[in-house]
Amino acid sequence: MAANDIAFASASNLARMIRSKEVSALEVMRTTLAQAEGAQATLNCFITICAEEALKDAAAADQAVSEGRALGPLHGVPLHVKDLVNTKDVRTTFASYIFEHNVPKEDAVAVARLKRAGAILVGKTTTPEFGHMPYTEAPLFGRTRNAWAQDRTSGGSSGGAAVALAAGVCAIGVGTDAGGSTRIPAACNGVVGFKQSSGVVPHDMAPEAFANVSSINPMARSVMDTALMLEVMAGPHPSDPYSLRMPSTGFVAGAMPEGSLKGLRIAWRPLMGNTVVDSQVLDLCERAALALGELGAGVEPMDDDIGAAEPVEPVWFAYNSAIWSARFSDALATCRDRLSPTLIRQMELGKDITGQAVGRALLARTQLYRKVEGWFERFDVILTPTLARTALPIEERLFEPIEIEGRQVDTVRKAWYPYTHPFNLTGHPALTLPCGVHSDGLPVAIQLVGRRGEDARLIKVAALYEQARPWAGRWPGIGT
Questions:
Q1: In a designed cystine with 144, which of 136, 203, 446, 469 is the match (CB 3.0 to 4.6 A)?
Q2: Domains of the chain
Protein backbone atom coordinates (compact mmCIF):
# COMPACT_ATOMS: atom_id res chain seq x y z
CA MET A 1 0.00 0.00 0.00
CA ALA A 2 1.06 3.59 -0.60
CA ALA A 3 2.40 5.29 2.51
CA ASN A 4 -0.22 8.06 2.38
CA ASP A 5 -3.02 5.49 2.16
CA ILE A 6 -1.77 3.95 5.39
CA ALA A 7 -1.06 7.26 7.12
CA PHE A 8 -4.58 8.60 6.61
CA ALA A 9 -6.51 5.32 6.87
CA SER A 10 -9.07 5.05 9.64
CA ALA A 11 -8.38 2.90 12.68
CA SER A 12 -11.29 0.64 11.84
CA ASN A 13 -9.95 0.08 8.30
CA LEU A 14 -6.40 -0.51 9.53
CA ALA A 15 -7.59 -3.11 12.03
CA ARG A 16 -9.65 -4.84 9.33
CA MET A 17 -6.76 -4.91 6.86
CA ILE A 18 -4.32 -6.22 9.47
CA ARG A 19 -6.74 -8.99 10.48
CA SER A 20 -7.25 -10.00 6.82
CA LYS A 21 -3.49 -9.75 6.07
CA GLU A 22 -4.04 -7.10 3.38
CA VAL A 23 -1.30 -5.21 5.17
CA SER A 24 0.96 -6.20 8.03
CA ALA A 25 1.05 -4.42 11.38
CA LEU A 26 4.79 -4.04 10.82
CA GLU A 27 4.27 -2.21 7.51
CA VAL A 28 1.71 0.04 9.16
CA MET A 29 4.08 0.78 12.02
CA ARG A 30 7.04 1.53 9.76
CA THR A 31 4.90 3.97 7.79
CA THR A 32 3.62 5.55 11.01
CA LEU A 33 7.12 6.02 12.42
CA ALA A 34 8.31 7.59 9.15
CA GLN A 35 5.32 9.92 9.26
CA ALA A 36 6.11 10.76 12.88
CA GLU A 37 9.70 11.59 11.99
CA GLY A 38 8.57 14.02 9.30
CA ALA A 39 5.96 15.64 11.50
CA GLN A 40 8.36 15.97 14.39
CA ALA A 41 10.93 17.76 12.26
CA THR A 42 8.55 20.57 11.33
CA LEU A 43 5.71 20.55 13.87
CA ASN A 44 7.33 19.24 17.10
CA CYS A 45 4.36 17.17 18.24
CA PHE A 46 6.14 14.44 20.25
CA ILE A 47 8.14 14.45 23.47
CA THR A 48 9.03 10.75 23.24
CA ILE A 49 8.86 8.32 20.30
CA CYS A 50 9.31 4.68 21.31
CA ALA A 51 10.17 3.28 17.87
CA GLU A 52 12.00 0.14 18.95
CA GLU A 53 9.25 -1.01 21.29
CA ALA A 54 6.54 -0.15 18.74
CA LEU A 55 8.21 -2.23 16.03
CA LYS A 56 8.54 -5.20 18.40
CA ASP A 57 4.86 -4.90 19.34
CA ALA A 58 3.88 -4.71 15.66
CA ALA A 59 5.83 -7.87 14.88
CA ALA A 60 4.08 -9.59 17.78
CA ALA A 61 0.73 -8.40 16.42
CA ASP A 62 1.49 -9.99 13.06
CA GLN A 63 2.47 -13.21 14.83
CA ALA A 64 -0.89 -13.24 16.62
CA VAL A 65 -2.70 -12.90 13.27
CA SER A 66 -0.65 -15.73 11.76
CA GLU A 67 -1.43 -18.02 14.71
CA GLY A 68 -5.16 -17.33 14.48
CA ARG A 69 -5.43 -15.92 17.99
CA ALA A 70 -8.39 -13.87 19.16
CA LEU A 71 -7.83 -10.25 18.15
CA GLY A 72 -9.12 -7.04 19.70
CA PRO A 73 -10.99 -4.33 17.77
CA LEU A 74 -7.83 -2.18 17.50
CA HIS A 75 -5.37 -4.99 16.80
CA GLY A 76 -2.16 -3.58 15.34
CA VAL A 77 -3.42 0.01 15.17
CA PRO A 78 -0.80 2.65 16.12
CA LEU A 79 -1.71 4.93 19.02
CA HIS A 80 -0.16 7.99 20.61
CA VAL A 81 -0.85 9.21 24.14
CA LYS A 82 -0.60 12.72 25.55
CA ASP A 83 2.33 13.06 27.93
CA LEU A 84 0.05 13.79 30.88
CA VAL A 85 -1.18 10.18 30.88
CA ASN A 86 0.86 7.32 32.35
CA THR A 87 2.30 4.69 30.02
CA LYS A 88 4.05 1.65 31.46
CA ASP A 89 7.82 1.58 30.88
CA VAL A 90 7.63 4.66 28.61
CA ARG A 91 8.77 8.04 29.87
CA THR A 92 5.91 10.28 31.02
CA THR A 93 7.17 13.80 31.75
CA PHE A 94 4.04 15.95 32.10
CA ALA A 95 6.15 18.29 29.91
CA SER A 96 8.11 19.27 33.00
CA TYR A 97 11.80 19.11 33.80
CA ILE A 98 10.68 17.97 37.25
CA PHE A 99 9.54 14.67 35.70
CA GLU A 100 11.99 14.57 32.79
CA HIS A 101 13.11 11.02 33.62
CA ASN A 102 9.87 9.69 35.09
CA VAL A 103 9.00 6.17 33.86
CA PRO A 104 5.67 4.84 35.21
CA LYS A 105 5.38 1.24 36.29
CA GLU A 106 1.75 1.00 35.16
CA ASP A 107 -0.47 2.28 32.37
CA ALA A 108 -3.37 4.59 33.11
CA VAL A 109 -6.60 2.59 33.04
CA ALA A 110 -7.70 4.00 29.67
CA VAL A 111 -4.32 3.25 28.09
CA ALA A 112 -4.30 -0.29 29.44
CA ARG A 113 -7.71 -0.88 27.92
CA LEU A 114 -6.61 0.44 24.52
CA LYS A 115 -3.58 -1.85 24.61
CA ARG A 116 -5.74 -4.85 25.52
CA ALA A 117 -7.84 -4.02 22.47
CA GLY A 118 -4.68 -4.36 20.37
CA ALA A 119 -3.53 -0.74 19.95
CA ILE A 120 0.25 -0.21 19.85
CA LEU A 121 1.89 2.78 21.52
CA VAL A 122 4.05 4.89 19.18
CA GLY A 123 4.94 7.74 21.51
CA LYS A 124 3.96 10.53 23.87
CA THR A 125 2.60 13.77 22.42
CA THR A 126 3.40 17.30 23.51
CA THR A 127 1.46 19.31 26.07
CA PRO A 128 2.15 22.51 28.01
CA GLU A 129 3.60 21.81 31.43
CA PHE A 130 0.95 19.93 33.45
CA GLY A 131 -1.57 20.92 30.75
CA HIS A 132 -2.00 24.40 32.20
CA MET A 133 -2.85 26.45 29.08
CA PRO A 134 -4.52 26.37 25.62
CA TYR A 135 -1.22 26.60 23.72
CA THR A 136 1.34 23.81 23.49
CA GLU A 137 4.84 24.83 24.53
CA ALA A 138 7.09 24.13 27.50
CA PRO A 139 10.76 24.60 28.50
CA LEU A 140 11.28 20.84 28.22
CA PHE A 141 10.56 20.55 24.48
CA GLY A 142 9.79 23.95 22.94
CA ARG A 143 6.73 24.83 20.87
CA THR A 144 4.29 22.75 18.81
CA ARG A 145 3.04 24.29 15.57
CA ASN A 146 -0.36 24.04 13.91
CA ALA A 147 -0.52 21.30 11.28
CA TRP A 148 -2.15 23.66 8.77
CA ALA A 149 0.00 26.76 9.29
CA GLN A 150 3.25 26.90 11.20
CA ASP A 151 2.72 30.52 12.20
CA ARG A 152 -0.42 29.55 14.15
CA THR A 153 -0.84 27.83 17.49
CA SER A 154 -1.62 24.15 17.69
CA GLY A 155 -4.01 24.91 20.51
CA GLY A 156 -3.72 23.04 23.76
CA SER A 157 -3.25 21.42 25.95
CA SER A 158 -3.58 18.29 23.78
CA GLY A 159 -1.84 20.14 20.96
CA GLY A 160 0.63 17.42 20.07
CA ALA A 161 -2.11 14.81 19.76
CA ALA A 162 -4.26 16.95 17.45
CA VAL A 163 -1.30 17.97 15.28
CA ALA A 164 -0.07 14.39 14.95
CA LEU A 165 -3.52 13.17 13.91
CA ALA A 166 -3.89 15.92 11.31
CA ALA A 167 -0.39 15.15 9.98
CA GLY A 168 -1.20 11.47 9.48
CA VAL A 169 0.64 10.12 12.53
CA CYS A 170 -1.72 7.45 13.87
CA ALA A 171 -5.46 7.33 13.36
CA ILE A 172 -6.14 7.58 17.10
CA GLY A 173 -4.68 9.46 20.05
CA VAL A 174 -5.39 10.01 23.73
CA GLY A 175 -5.89 13.56 24.98
CA THR A 176 -7.09 15.16 28.20
CA ASP A 177 -9.50 18.00 28.83
CA ALA A 178 -9.89 20.17 31.95
CA GLY A 179 -11.17 23.34 30.27
CA GLY A 180 -11.21 22.52 26.56
CA SER A 181 -7.82 20.86 26.20
CA THR A 182 -9.08 18.14 23.84
CA ARG A 183 -11.62 20.27 21.95
CA ILE A 184 -9.51 23.41 21.42
CA PRO A 185 -6.60 21.74 19.57
CA ALA A 186 -8.99 19.39 17.74
CA ALA A 187 -10.79 22.47 16.39
CA CYS A 188 -7.51 24.22 15.53
CA ASN A 189 -6.27 21.23 13.52
CA GLY A 190 -9.43 19.84 11.94
CA VAL A 191 -9.87 16.59 13.89
CA VAL A 192 -12.52 15.13 16.21
CA GLY A 193 -12.25 15.48 19.98
CA PHE A 194 -14.75 14.19 22.53
CA LYS A 195 -14.98 15.18 26.18
CA GLN A 196 -17.38 12.47 27.25
CA SER A 197 -19.74 12.69 30.23
CA SER A 198 -17.86 12.74 33.51
CA GLY A 199 -16.99 9.17 34.49
CA VAL A 200 -17.64 7.42 31.16
CA VAL A 201 -13.87 6.93 30.90
CA PRO A 202 -12.41 6.43 34.39
CA HIS A 203 -9.81 9.03 35.31
CA ASP A 204 -7.44 7.24 37.65
CA MET A 205 -4.89 10.06 37.38
CA ALA A 206 -7.15 12.89 38.56
CA PRO A 207 -5.42 14.48 41.57
CA GLU A 208 -8.80 15.24 43.18
CA ALA A 209 -11.59 12.82 42.24
CA PHE A 210 -14.72 14.33 43.75
CA ALA A 211 -14.66 17.86 42.32
CA ASN A 212 -12.65 16.82 39.27
CA VAL A 213 -13.13 18.79 36.02
CA SER A 214 -10.64 16.89 33.84
CA SER A 215 -11.07 13.82 31.64
CA ILE A 216 -9.03 11.40 29.54
CA ASN A 217 -10.45 11.50 26.02
CA PRO A 218 -10.47 9.88 22.60
CA MET A 219 -9.17 11.94 19.67
CA ALA A 220 -9.35 10.79 16.05
CA ARG A 221 -9.91 11.89 12.47
CA SER A 222 -13.46 10.54 12.27
CA VAL A 223 -16.50 10.09 14.45
CA MET A 224 -16.41 6.30 14.02
CA ASP A 225 -12.81 6.03 15.22
CA THR A 226 -13.66 8.28 18.18
CA ALA A 227 -16.55 5.98 19.07
CA LEU A 228 -14.39 2.89 18.63
CA MET A 229 -11.85 4.30 21.07
CA LEU A 230 -14.55 5.30 23.55
CA GLU A 231 -16.13 1.84 23.50
CA VAL A 232 -12.75 0.41 24.49
CA MET A 233 -11.83 3.07 27.06
CA ALA A 234 -15.20 3.28 28.85
CA GLY A 235 -16.40 1.31 31.84
CA PRO A 236 -16.35 1.56 35.63
CA HIS A 237 -13.17 1.42 37.68
CA PRO A 238 -12.75 1.76 41.46
CA SER A 239 -10.27 4.65 41.04
CA ASP A 240 -13.02 6.99 39.81
CA PRO A 241 -16.25 7.33 41.81
CA TYR A 242 -18.01 8.98 38.85
CA SER A 243 -17.35 6.00 36.59
CA LEU A 244 -19.81 3.80 38.46
CA ARG A 245 -23.06 3.13 36.58
CA MET A 246 -22.10 5.33 33.62
CA PRO A 247 -22.83 4.06 30.07
CA SER A 248 -20.00 2.00 28.61
CA THR A 249 -21.46 0.58 25.39
CA GLY A 250 -23.46 1.71 22.38
CA PHE A 251 -20.93 4.23 21.09
CA VAL A 252 -19.92 2.31 17.96
CA ALA A 253 -23.56 1.58 17.17
CA GLY A 254 -24.26 5.28 17.58
CA ALA A 255 -21.51 6.14 15.10
CA MET A 256 -23.22 4.22 12.29
CA PRO A 257 -24.43 7.05 9.99
CA GLU A 258 -27.90 5.59 9.57
CA GLY A 259 -31.39 7.05 9.92
CA SER A 260 -32.28 10.69 10.44
CA LEU A 261 -32.52 13.24 13.21
CA LYS A 262 -36.29 13.51 12.98
CA GLY A 263 -37.76 14.62 16.29
CA LEU A 264 -34.43 15.79 17.74
CA ARG A 265 -34.50 19.31 19.20
CA ILE A 266 -31.26 21.25 18.65
CA ALA A 267 -30.46 24.70 20.05
CA TRP A 268 -28.15 26.86 17.96
CA ARG A 269 -26.27 28.97 20.48
CA PRO A 270 -23.66 31.35 19.00
CA LEU A 271 -22.66 33.01 22.30
CA MET A 272 -21.63 31.72 25.71
CA GLY A 273 -20.87 34.79 27.76
CA ASN A 274 -18.77 36.33 24.94
CA THR A 275 -19.82 39.12 22.58
CA VAL A 276 -17.65 38.71 19.46
CA VAL A 277 -17.39 35.83 16.98
CA ASP A 278 -15.48 35.87 13.70
CA SER A 279 -18.05 36.40 10.93
CA GLN A 280 -16.85 33.47 8.83
CA VAL A 281 -16.81 31.18 11.85
CA LEU A 282 -20.36 32.27 12.61
CA ASP A 283 -21.45 31.67 9.01
CA LEU A 284 -19.91 28.19 8.82
CA CYS A 285 -21.44 27.16 12.14
CA GLU A 286 -24.85 28.49 11.09
CA ARG A 287 -24.56 26.42 7.92
CA ALA A 288 -23.86 23.40 10.12
CA ALA A 289 -27.06 24.16 12.05
CA LEU A 290 -28.98 24.30 8.75
CA ALA A 291 -27.45 20.98 7.69
CA LEU A 292 -28.66 19.35 10.91
CA GLY A 293 -32.11 20.76 10.17
CA GLU A 294 -31.99 19.16 6.72
CA LEU A 295 -31.31 15.84 8.46
CA GLY A 296 -34.63 16.14 10.25
CA ALA A 297 -33.78 17.94 13.48
CA GLY A 298 -35.74 20.91 14.70
CA VAL A 299 -33.19 23.70 15.09
CA GLU A 300 -33.94 26.88 17.04
CA PRO A 301 -31.73 29.83 17.99
CA MET A 302 -31.00 30.13 21.69
CA ASP A 303 -30.25 33.41 23.42
CA ASP A 304 -27.22 33.72 25.67
CA ASP A 305 -28.17 33.39 29.32
CA ILE A 306 -24.56 33.42 30.53
CA GLY A 307 -23.31 36.98 30.61
CA ALA A 308 -21.25 39.52 32.46
CA ALA A 309 -23.41 39.19 35.57
CA GLU A 310 -22.41 35.55 36.11
CA PRO A 311 -19.27 34.76 34.07
CA VAL A 312 -18.05 31.16 34.04
CA GLU A 313 -14.32 31.66 33.60
CA PRO A 314 -13.66 33.05 37.12
CA VAL A 315 -15.46 30.04 38.60
CA TRP A 316 -13.29 27.67 36.58
CA PHE A 317 -10.11 29.61 37.41
CA ALA A 318 -10.74 29.78 41.16
CA TYR A 319 -11.05 26.03 41.43
CA ASN A 320 -8.17 25.23 39.08
CA SER A 321 -5.77 27.75 40.60
CA ALA A 322 -6.41 26.23 44.01
CA ILE A 323 -5.57 22.77 42.65
CA TRP A 324 -2.44 24.07 40.88
CA SER A 325 -1.26 25.72 44.08
CA ALA A 326 -1.91 22.59 46.12
CA ARG A 327 -0.02 20.41 43.64
CA PHE A 328 2.90 22.63 42.65
CA SER A 329 3.60 25.19 45.39
CA ASP A 330 6.49 23.10 46.73
CA ALA A 331 7.97 22.89 43.23
CA LEU A 332 7.62 26.64 42.90
CA ALA A 333 9.78 27.06 45.98
CA THR A 334 12.52 24.69 44.81
CA CYS A 335 12.38 24.59 40.97
CA ARG A 336 11.05 28.00 39.97
CA ASP A 337 13.75 28.57 37.33
CA ARG A 338 12.77 25.33 35.56
CA LEU A 339 9.00 25.87 35.41
CA SER A 340 7.03 27.51 32.58
CA PRO A 341 6.63 31.26 33.19
CA THR A 342 2.93 30.98 32.33
CA LEU A 343 2.40 28.28 34.96
CA ILE A 344 4.22 30.41 37.54
CA ARG A 345 2.11 33.45 36.71
CA GLN A 346 -1.15 31.50 36.93
CA MET A 347 -0.15 30.24 40.36
CA GLU A 348 0.73 33.78 41.41
CA LEU A 349 -2.60 35.09 40.11
CA GLY A 350 -4.32 32.44 42.19
CA LYS A 351 -2.31 32.78 45.39
CA ASP A 352 -4.72 35.30 46.92
CA ILE A 353 -7.80 33.19 46.19
CA THR A 354 -9.18 32.26 49.60
CA GLY A 355 -10.90 29.13 50.76
CA GLN A 356 -14.10 31.14 50.84
CA ALA A 357 -13.60 32.11 47.18
CA VAL A 358 -13.10 28.46 46.24
CA GLY A 359 -16.23 27.58 48.20
CA ARG A 360 -18.18 30.24 46.31
CA ALA A 361 -16.83 28.89 43.04
CA LEU A 362 -18.09 25.42 43.94
CA LEU A 363 -21.50 26.86 44.79
CA ALA A 364 -21.53 28.69 41.46
CA ARG A 365 -20.54 25.47 39.72
CA THR A 366 -23.67 23.81 41.09
CA GLN A 367 -25.82 26.68 39.85
CA LEU A 368 -24.23 26.44 36.41
CA TYR A 369 -24.94 22.71 36.31
CA ARG A 370 -28.59 23.33 37.12
CA LYS A 371 -28.81 26.07 34.51
CA VAL A 372 -27.40 23.80 31.81
CA GLU A 373 -29.69 20.98 32.87
CA GLY A 374 -32.54 23.44 32.38
CA TRP A 375 -31.53 23.88 28.74
CA PHE A 376 -32.25 20.20 28.17
CA GLU A 377 -35.87 20.60 29.24
CA ARG A 378 -36.37 22.32 25.85
CA PHE A 379 -33.57 20.79 23.76
CA ASP A 380 -31.79 17.49 23.23
CA VAL A 381 -28.51 18.90 21.87
CA ILE A 382 -26.84 22.31 22.11
CA LEU A 383 -24.82 23.46 19.07
CA THR A 384 -22.11 26.11 19.46
CA PRO A 385 -18.91 27.16 17.73
CA THR A 386 -15.97 25.43 19.39
CA LEU A 387 -13.82 28.58 19.12
CA ALA A 388 -14.70 32.20 18.43
CA ARG A 389 -12.03 32.39 15.71
CA THR A 390 -9.49 30.12 14.02
CA ALA A 391 -6.12 29.23 15.56
CA LEU A 392 -4.40 32.25 17.10
CA PRO A 393 -0.96 33.47 16.01
CA ILE A 394 1.70 31.28 17.53
CA GLU A 395 3.18 34.21 19.47
CA GLU A 396 -0.16 34.90 21.18
CA ARG A 397 0.14 35.20 24.95
CA LEU A 398 -2.11 33.75 27.63
CA PHE A 399 -2.86 36.88 29.66
CA GLU A 400 -3.25 39.47 26.91
CA PRO A 401 -6.29 40.47 24.82
CA ILE A 402 -6.73 38.66 21.51
CA GLU A 403 -7.95 39.98 18.18
CA ILE A 404 -10.97 38.86 16.20
CA GLU A 405 -11.21 40.37 12.71
CA GLY A 406 -8.84 43.16 13.72
CA ARG A 407 -10.83 44.04 16.82
CA GLN A 408 -9.17 43.72 20.22
CA VAL A 409 -11.40 41.73 22.55
CA ASP A 410 -10.98 40.03 25.93
CA THR A 411 -8.37 37.52 27.08
CA VAL A 412 -7.99 34.10 25.51
CA ARG A 413 -10.12 32.13 28.00
CA LYS A 414 -12.96 34.63 27.95
CA ALA A 415 -12.98 35.49 24.25
CA TRP A 416 -11.53 32.53 22.28
CA TYR A 417 -12.96 29.44 23.97
CA PRO A 418 -15.80 30.47 26.31
CA TYR A 419 -17.73 27.55 24.79
CA THR A 420 -15.62 24.75 26.26
CA HIS A 421 -14.85 25.19 29.97
CA PRO A 422 -18.49 25.48 31.16
CA PHE A 423 -19.00 21.79 30.36
CA ASN A 424 -15.93 20.71 32.30
CA LEU A 425 -17.63 22.26 35.30
CA THR A 426 -21.01 20.64 34.60
CA GLY A 427 -19.80 17.25 33.34
CA HIS A 428 -21.94 17.23 30.19
CA PRO A 429 -20.57 15.49 27.08
CA ALA A 430 -19.19 17.84 24.42
CA LEU A 431 -17.86 16.80 21.01
CA THR A 432 -16.06 18.96 18.46
CA LEU A 433 -15.76 18.19 14.76
CA PRO A 434 -14.81 20.19 11.66
CA CYS A 435 -17.47 22.13 9.78
CA GLY A 436 -15.47 23.96 7.10
CA VAL A 437 -12.42 25.99 6.16
CA HIS A 438 -11.96 29.71 6.83
CA SER A 439 -10.56 32.02 4.16
CA ASP A 440 -7.31 32.02 6.16
CA GLY A 441 -6.98 28.33 5.23
CA LEU A 442 -7.59 27.01 8.75
CA PRO A 443 -10.29 24.63 9.99
CA VAL A 444 -13.45 25.79 11.74
CA ALA A 445 -15.34 23.50 14.11
CA ILE A 446 -18.70 23.09 15.79
CA GLN A 447 -19.30 21.78 19.29
CA LEU A 448 -22.22 19.49 20.13
CA VAL A 449 -23.28 19.25 23.79
CA GLY A 450 -25.69 16.67 25.18
CA ARG A 451 -27.31 15.48 28.37
CA ARG A 452 -25.09 13.66 30.84
CA GLY A 453 -25.04 10.00 29.95
CA GLU A 454 -26.35 10.53 26.42
CA ASP A 455 -22.94 10.23 24.80
CA ALA A 456 -24.13 7.71 22.21
CA ARG A 457 -26.87 10.06 21.04
CA LEU A 458 -24.33 12.86 20.67
CA ILE A 459 -22.12 10.55 18.61
CA LYS A 460 -25.12 9.72 16.39
CA VAL A 461 -25.71 13.42 15.65
CA ALA A 462 -22.02 13.91 14.87
CA ALA A 463 -21.91 10.83 12.61
CA LEU A 464 -24.90 11.93 10.56
CA TYR A 465 -23.48 15.44 10.24
CA GLU A 466 -20.10 14.05 9.19
CA GLN A 467 -21.77 11.93 6.51
CA ALA A 468 -23.74 14.92 5.20
CA ARG A 469 -20.75 17.26 5.29
CA PRO A 470 -17.72 14.97 4.82
CA TRP A 471 -14.30 16.21 5.80
CA ALA A 472 -12.16 13.20 4.74
CA GLY A 473 -9.39 14.14 2.34
CA ARG A 474 -8.88 17.66 3.73
CA TRP A 475 -5.54 17.11 5.42
CA PRO A 476 -2.53 19.42 5.51
CA GLY A 477 0.81 18.41 4.05
CA ILE A 478 3.65 18.01 6.53
CA GLY A 479 5.90 21.00 6.36
CA THR A 480 3.45 23.20 4.43
A1: 136
A2: 3-305+378-468 (3.90.1300.10)
